Amino acid sequence: MRITMIGSGYVGLVTGACFADFGHTVTCVDNDPAKIAALKRGDMPIYEPGLAELVAANVREKRLAFTTELAGPARGADAIFIAVGTPSRPADGLADLTFVYQAAREIADVLDGFKVIVTKSTVPVGTGDEITRIIKELRPDADFAVVSNPEFLREGAAIDDFKKPDRVVIGTDDDRARAVMGEIYQSLARNNTPIVFTERRGAEIIKYAANAFLATKITFINEIADLCEQAGANVQEVAQGIGLDNRIGPKFLNAGPGYGGSCFPKDLLALLKSGLDFGVPIRSIETIISINEQRKRAMARKIIAACGGQIRGQSIAVLGLTFKPDTDDMRESPSVAIITALQDAGAKVKAYDPEGIKQARTILKGVDFAEDSYSCLEGADAVVIMTEWDVFRRLDLDRMRQLLKRPIVIDLRNCYRPADMIKRGFTYVSVGRPAYQCT
Ligand SMILES: NC(=O)c1ccc[n+]([C@@H]2O[C@H](COP(=O)([O-])OP(=O)(O)OC[C@H]3O[C@@H](n4cnc5c(N)ncnc54)[C@H](O)[C@@H]3O)[C@@H](O)[C@H]2O)c1
C-alpha cells in the first residue's frame, strides 16, 4: 500500500516507520520544515528507543520518505492518515481540532480518485462526520471514506506497542475502506492480532474510554496507597493481591505522583467535556481528574513533610522530569506542578533527567539543571525520585549518602526497598508504604 502520513510527531513518525517496516511505501508529511529537514538528515526530532534505527533502515530501502508538501505523495496514496496533535483547548478543555480540520482541508485540495482518509489522532466522537462534511463541502465530486483508527502506543515502548498491539481498532462502514485497512494491517492480522472492526463513532469512543479506564486504575491505586500509608500496609503487596485477579490485571497498578503525559490529562478532559455536549455528565471521569490534579500538590506537601515541615532556602535534588521513563516528553508531567510547588515553598531545585532536560528548560523556570545523577545530588538537603528511569533504580546508594547534605530520600516511584534504605542510614519516604525515619 502507498500511505501518506500527515504529522510526523510521536505518533505519525512511529506509525509511518512501522508501516514502512511492514513493507508499505510511506511518506511522512509535516508542516514544520525544521522537523522534516532533521528527519531527512537522519536526526530524530523525538527520543524513542529504536526509532532512529528503524527510520534509517526503511529510508535506505526507499520505503520511507519525508516532505513538507502533501500534494505529491497524497495523489498516489491508497490511504492518507491524519496524525496531527489534538491538544486541550485552553478556553473550555475540549479537544482542539484546528490541526485535524486544517489537514482535512488540505486533503480535500489534493483528492483524485477513491481515497481512504484515516484519523489516527485522538478525536472526540463525531469528528469523522465533521471531516467528511468539510471535505464534501470543498470537493462535492470527491470519492473518499473517512475511517477512525485510534492509536494505543505508549511513548517509550512505541515501536513494540505498534508492532505487537493488543488489538487494532478500525471504525468504518465502507467496504472499500475496510479492504484497504485490512491490507495495511495484514502483517499484524497474520500474527493473530485481533483486528476489531466497529462503526466509526464506536472507534472514536473506544480510544477515550480506554485512556479514561487506564487513568482510573492509576488514580484508584494512588488512593489505596494513601490508605496503606496511613494504615501501615504496603501498596505493592495490595496491588499484587488484586492484580492477580484476571478481571483486574496487574498493569497500571503502580502507585505514584499521579498520571501525566501528552494523552491522559487532555483526553480525560476532552471525554468529560464532549460527554456534556451530548447531555451526559460522566461523573467518574470528573472525579478522577480532580483527584489527580490535587495529588500533585499533595506530593509536594509530602516532600516538605519529609524534610521536617519546611524547605525555605533548602536545596532539593530532583531525579527525573519526564512523565515516565524512556521518553523526552514533558507535556503535563507531574514534575512540573510538584517542582513549582517546591519553589513556591522557597526551595531551590536542582534537577536531572536523561532525556527530558531540553523540553524541561522551556517549561520550568528557575531550576538548575544538572549533567548527571550524582552532580544533581551534591550538597542537596533531600532528593526526590520523580521518574523511574532505569538509571535511578541502580544508583550507588553509598555515594548518594555521601553526596547529600542530609540523607533524605523521597521516592515517588517506589524504586527502592525501604529495608535497604534504612539499613544505609537514609530517611526514606515512598508512596503507599511505611515511612522510615533515620535516627
Ligand atoms: N504521543 C502519544 O503517546 C500518543 C499515543 C496515542 C495517540 N496519540 C494521539 O496522536 C495525535 C498526535 O500526537 P503526537 O504526540 O504525535 O503529537 P505531536 O505534537 O508530537 O505531532 C504532531 C505533528 O503534526 C504536525 N502537524 C500539525 N498540523 C499539520 C499539518 N496540517 N500538516 C502537516 N503536519 C502537521 C506538527 O508539526 C507535529 O509535528 C494526538 O491526537 C494524540 O492524542 C498520541
Summarize this structure as a short list of keywords or feature phrases.
six-stranded parallel sheet; 19 helices; 439 residues; 13% strand; binds nicotinamide-adenine-dinucleotide; 46% helix; alpha/beta
Helical segment count: 19
Overall mean pLDDT score? 97
By helix and strand content, what is the structural category? alpha/beta
Strand segment count: 14
Strand order of the largest sheet: 3-2-1-4-5-6
Low-confidence stretches: none
What is the general shape? elongated
Helix coverage percent:
40-55%
Bound molecules: nicotinamide-adenine-dinucleotide
Question: What does the model show?
Answer:
This protein is an alpha/beta fold and 439 residues long. It is 46% helix and 13% strand. It is built from 19 helices and 14 strands. Helix 1 (10-21) packs across helix 3 (51-60), helix 12 (264-277) runs antiparallel to helix 13 (283-306) and helix 13 crosses helix 14 (334-344). Bound molecules: nicotinamide-adenine-dinucleotide.
List the helices and strands and how they pair.
Blueprint: E1 2-6, H1 10-21, E2 25-29, H2 33-41, H3 51-60, E3 64-67, H4 71-76, E4 79-82, H5 98-110, E5 115-119, H6 127-138, E6 144-148, H7 158-163, E7 168-171, H8 175-184, H9 186-190, E8 195-198, H10 200-231, H11 235-243, H12 264-277, H13 283-306, E9 315-319, H14 334-344, E10 348-352, H15 357-363, E11 368-369, H16 373-377, E12 382-385, H17 390-393, H18 397-403, E13 408-411, H19 418-423, E14 427-429
Parallel strand pairs: 1-2, 1-4, 2-3, 4-5, 5-6, 7-8, 9-10, 9-12, 10-11, 12-13, 13-14
Helix pairs in contact: 1-3, 5-6, 10-12, 10-13, 12-13, 13-14
The protein binds nicotinamide-adenine-dinucleotide (NAD).
